[in-house]
Amino acid sequence: MIEQSLVLATLSEALKTGGEFAEVFVEDRQSSTAVLDDGKVEELVSGRTRGAGVRVVVGDTTGFAHTSNLTAEGLTRAARAAAASARGSSGITKVVGLTEVQATPPQQVKVLPETVAKVMKVELLKTADNAARATGAAVTQVSACYADGRRRILVANSDGLLASDDQVRTRFAVSCVALGDTGMQTGYESVGRPIGFELFDEYEVDALARTAANRALTKLAAQPAPSGSMPVVIGPGGGGVLFHEACGHGLEADLVAKQASVFRNRVGEQVAHPEVTLIDDGTMAREWGAYAIDDEGRPAQRNVLIENGVLTDYMWDLLRARKEGRESSGNGRRQNYQHLPMVRMTNTYLSNGTENPADIIAATDRGVYVAHLGGGQVNTATGDFVFGMNEAYLIENGQITAPIREGNLIGNGPEVLAGIEALGNDFAMGSPGTCGKDGQGVPVGDGTPTLRVASMTIGGTAA
Amino acid sequence: MNPEELLEIAQRIVNWGRDGEQVEAIVGHRQETEVRVYKGEIESLSVAESQGVGIRVITNNRQGFAHAGTLDQKVLAETLAEARDNVVFGSPDKFFGLAEPDGVAPPKLNLYNEALLQVSTEAKIDMALELERAVLAGDPRIVGIESADYGDALSADAIATTTGIRSTGKDTSCYLTAYSLASEGDEIQTGFGFSVSREPGTLDIATAASDAVERATRMLGATQPATERVTVVLDPFVSAQFLGIIGGTLSGEAVLKGRSLFANRLDEQVAATSVTLVDDPTNPDAFTASDADGEGLATRRNQLIGGGQLEKFLHNSYTGRRSGSTSTGSAVRGYASTPGVGCQALSLVPGERLPSELIAEIDNGVLIQGVSGLHSGVNPVSGDFSTGAEGLRIRNGELAEPVREITIASTLQRMLLDVTAVGSDLTWLPMNSAGVTIVVAEVTMSGA
Description:
The complex is a heterodimer of chains A (about 475) and B (about 450). With about 475 residues, chain A is an alpha+beta fold. Chain A has helices at about 5-15, 70-85, 120-135, 200, 205-220, 240-250, 255, 320-325, 355-360, 415-420; strands at about 20-35, 40-60, 60-65, 100, 140-155, 160-180, 185-195, 225-235, 280, 300-305, 310, 330-335, 340-345, 345-350, 365-380, 385-395, 400-405, 405-410, 420-425, 430, 435, 440-450, 450-460. In chain A, strand 21 (about 435) and strand 22 (about 440-450) form a beta hairpin. Chain A is globular.
């Protein structure tokens, strides 16, 4: 992407004021998006962004600057700006050589999206629109979105690290509106993988569209969600976001270090049922949060966070790890070159249990079955978190019965972990997600088997 | 870069347009400083400069768009070529078309304060450090901060079109924000406080700090209450988020595409009579005020709901044309997207009474000071509203014990009709809506 000599010169410039550590992150991304709405392909959008971020660390202080000018002049300016913010006396003034980190990409990309004729992307949209509308006469509106992105990154730092990655992601989403006697309802479904256009050899967009349409249609008959606390059964794949919010964020070392996590000082403790094993795995092939290297040049890893119910470790980026004298866990990520990296999740999942999922439902007298979760949010300091129900039903006398309308569930991370009382043997990964933290969004994946939490608070309006 | 230079770049792109082609170029430039301090030291200091261009081409009723994060001359030409190439894949729509000058004069707001440029980086760092100290000193139960930040931005943009639009804008903004941690025993609670302005000299460190302290400490000892139906009081920060969602349902785009629960309801009583909702980006008090909208048309004051009656939807040029009316100057966008339709500076017309007076009349209620999961629990199409919340009980007209791990739920339609009072405490916030205390009856609070 840029000459190695230029990288070395930029690092040297960045260290001139006595920095202890310097890093250059170069990024080149191109994207294409096509949106169909209201029966029309509204437009095709192409985007191109290129730039570099330079950071300099002295003690606990980080200086950062970025530029879209990748010439020697632009990079020197950014390096000086970053260095001006972090002055020290380390005596490192020159980075002599860089050693390239070899990391295997979790998967191979077969068909680069940029080589695919635009008309084929547009055709997918029309197929989805037709399929969604054909699902039921009550489907009154459809929007479909195709998006691909290619992100090439290069990271070099004053420890002599040099690493690069070529990350491709392709995604397709359909959202429908259905109109009935009780007003409008919506349904949504998406698929995405860190691969190219071959995604559509595996997934039929018309099936995806029908799933979205059926979610909206089902909800036309939905009754208001109950209010108050009761058992919650979460379906396979749909529940990963629960753990992302309930404990994933609280296991990010930057928040732990600031006392802003309910899981601080709890490594080694039994925090959940002995059958609960929670893993964050950036090497998980073909999953939305996978990559070869993180945005600090560290190869992705499989990190066990909770093993047999015992909290084993937090997730780490380079700076937090340096401070503790340990290695990064490959979780240092950033939205793009305009941001500093921080500790982020990749693909976070709860591994399989042993029970038959049908038995878990049958053993639930009265509760809620959530087939598909929406997004969520957590306050890591208190552990209180919410997540939305995109598709949910009542459980009455051990049977899944009436669909219920949308709403949030609220719970407390440590309490919910301790309250997991049944884990199914039907593990599945969920839909592609975007995790937001401190204003930065990054792609993440999640997954779970069917599971039951003894009690959570359902945010509905019915008694 | 100043707006005139950006306009020159935009105009240059537009001049490359061919016969039969409509071309619009939006060019933006932004300079930012962000300081985060922790335990008396700078944790990070970022200085940044970014720019970008978005180009829209319309030919034979089809539209294409491309954007790039640089103003490099060669890239500008490539981006135009890419937008042009994208045109043929869009569906034809006779309502496509760029904005045309409509004779409305821009309000000529003064949103750019030179004073920001005179403030040194050291002074900015000092403000963040002072904020951290003030939060930590605010109460013995404050045990730390999650973050204390100072940030500022200087942005400029320009829009030019083949239809004769030539618009520029520039503004300055700065903020201070703190997230505090309060503790008693094993328990930790969090709170935030902030101050926003157009130049650092008028930032209010003391208020930002005391808000962060009070919001965290008053939640200590919070418990989960039982489920019941109550009157809720939304504090300004919460009501602003609620209004933002309501504003989204009043966009002409949502109406035309069958996604607005208020479609076909013009002139109907959709809210309590105390509700008068206005979107007014010409109000210089709004932090999102601007002279021109995302298509370069002058901004204007639009009253959406008057005395509870639905009066108007917002439009950009496309939705205006398609609905047989005109743009309301409500195109919203950045350089990386085509214009959408949305609110720019939404607010309720405030009432006469202070929040304390409104609370004094409530026998059994909850003051909601924070909500979470608005993106996952509120569906602006169906109107279902359910959000995580925390706050203080109101008993016999007085603020009482803190409550947490609750949700509040209703529907957007019901909540507007159930507003029983609007406070006098209109507060402009760093978002596209202002906050004001509002009282809503008959909301379900879910708890234990």
